[in-house]
Amino acid sequence: MDQMIYNLFKAPLITEAKCVLCVQPHSDDNEIGMGATIKKLATMGCDIHYLTVTDGRLGTNDPSQNLDKLAKIRREEAIAAGTLLGAKHFHFFDYKDGTLENPRELSYKISELIRTIHCDFVFVCDPYNKYEAHLDHIIVGQAVSQAVIGSSLAYYPENTKTKPFEVSAIAYYFTNIPNTYVEISDYIEDQFAAIKMHKSQLTGNVFELFKSYLLNQYQSYAIEEDSKLAQGFKILRPLHLHCITEANNI
Ligand SMILES: [Zn+2]
């Protein structure tokens, strides 16, 4: 049954994407969650858009940190890291870090962006991981999911001046139930170089911890022949995102 539902609305290959929107709650999530895949897509000629939803001002353990200054630094780091991976377009919503409350309002803004740039894939952190505690990640993931089903409606949001646009698929990174794997051996060093651009976030041995965690995960996902390292995504068509009870198992 689950396979039947998947085949009924089968998603195209990520590597066939011509334009993608990579949504991150905070500057650095795209690099940590899918940096090598971004570089791979860019190398294949895909047009890469970044959307950073919050200003990341709370990303510090230093009680003397000036938060306005940190927000500015994190914006610069997002652009530097994304540029290294081949992103060409950078959108910032500048919500204050840790204050997101309303996924519906946010989904209107994301829908407008989708309807403007006409991306065929939208990537975002998976908000449905059972133990994801960060509310910014949950709200952004939910808002993007709603935007993906709403953007094809004539009026979403109601007073929109943009025309409906249907994306091919949503792809969740940071997911505990991947259904698609992308071979990324040739691009892993680019991902680590991009993560290193986030100097404000890499205190102590944070980078080394991330590196060993990610490499372990990517090795475990490299299940296909000739694959050494693979990133995992949960990919669904917009039709899977509403009333399809098998979507969790697809
Ligand atoms: Zn984050």
What's the short story on this structure?
It is built from seven helices and seven strands; from the N terminus they run αβαβαβαβαββααβ. The chain is of the alpha/beta class and 250 residues long. The protein has one domain: 3-Layer(aba) Sandwich (Rossmann fold), CATH 3.40.50.
Summarize the structure in words.
The chain has a single domain (about 1-240), classed as Rossmann fold (3-Layer(aba) Sandwich), CATH 3.40.50.10320. The protein is built from 7 helices and 7 strands; from the N terminus they run αβαβαβαβαββααβ. It has helices spanning about 1-10, 30-45, 65-85, 105-115, 135-150, 190-195, 205-220; strands at about 20-25, 45-55, 90-95, 120-125, 170-175, 180-185, 230-235. It has a 7-stranded mixed beta sheet, with helices on both faces. The longest helix has 19 residues, at about 65-85. The termini are close together. The model has no long low-confidence stretch (mean pLDDT about 95). The site of zinc ion has 4 residues, from loops.
As laid out across the biggest beta sheet, the strand order is 3-2-1-4-5-7-6
Q: Which hetero ligands occur in this complex?
A: zinc ion
Q: What is the fourth-level CATH superfamily?
A: LmbE-like
* Structure annotation, total helices: 7
Low-confidence stretches: none
Question: What is the fold named in CATH at topology level?
Answer: Rossmann fold
Specify the overall morphology. globular
What radius of gyration results from the CA coordinates? 17 Å
